Amino acid sequence: MAGTSLLSLIDDIASLLDDVSLMTKVAAKKTAGVLGDDLALNAEQVSGAPANRELPVVLRVARGSLINKAILVPAAILITAVYPPLVVILLMLGGAYLCFEGAEKVAEKIFHHSPESDRAEELALSDPEAFEKARVKGAIRTDFILSAEIIVIALGTMTGHPLGSQIAALVTIALVMTVGVYGLVLAIVKLDDLGLLLLKRPSALSQALGRILVRAAAPLMKLLGVAGTIAMFLVGGGIVAHGVPFLARLGEAAMELHWVLGSLYPLLVGGVTGGLLVLFVVLVQTVYRRGAPEKRG
């Protein structure tokens, strides 16, 4: 009897692992596009740190990302069980924030400065430690929104499976995603260091490869900056478009016309949403500043 019970337990565990493995594979396929955006955006967010602080910054953001997922996995399961519409509302708010952040970056590039960037530059010069903390905090905040979308998409592929299997699959996705994304982010930001290391080797091939990596590092960082901003619009615009029925129907129509139009549609929605939010914030700040002296008087 004991032997039969043990074999039954092993069979149950094997079935659970197969179920978790299958769900993880399906979820990974569904979230692959967002993971690409996540990589570009996070690489852009943590780049720009001094060479001796790149590793600590990436590790701190990765730790924050794990904490985000430790909050999001149980929260997503609980909200989905209690009140599913709340998931969409929270995602919409996060998506709108990403659009706003992307539009703010574009506005800063066009107008060459903003009060926020001026304050950031002052902080970087006066208190580098506080600036690094603010940068890490901003990266973790952005990661929270991206992680929330990935967790929700992954959870949507697991409907009908036992709760234990869903939790195990979500935890697996969260861990693999964090290690994979931040491992690649670290590799990207340390590309120039690898190039310098290769330049010290006696091999002509190593030195040639080292020169290529050193020369490619700066343009790659600039490219990641652009890719990260585009990712904000794509992810944020995609969330907003899916959450508003009218916009969702327009997106379907655009996809039917041509796949390129359908692919660019979230970018358009993200740009317009972010632009409107930036305009709204600027108007509110202007009204507040004009009214402030009258209040004091």
Produce the secondary structure layout.
Blueprint: H1 2-46, H2 54-82, H3 85-111, H4 115-126, H5 128-156, H6 163-189, H7 191-199, H8 204-243, H9 245-257, H10 259-296
Helix pairs in contact: 1-5, 1-6, 1-8, 2-5, 2-6, 3-5, 3-8, 3-10, 4-5, 5-6, 7-8, 8-9, 8-10, 9-10
What structural category characterises the helix and strand content? mainly alpha
Average pLDDT reading: 77
Number of helices: 10
**Low-confidence blocks of residues:** 5-19
- The geometry reads as globular
What does this structure look like?
The chain is an all-alpha fold and 297 residues long. The protein has one domain (15-228). Helix content is 91%, strand content 0%. Helix 3 (85-111) packs across helix 5. The longest helix has 45 residues, at 2-46. The radius of gyration is 23 Å and the shape is globular. The model is unreliable at 5-19 (pLDDT under 50).
Task: Provide a brief overview of the structure.
This protein is mainly α and 297 residues long.
Structural descriptors:
mainly alpha, globular
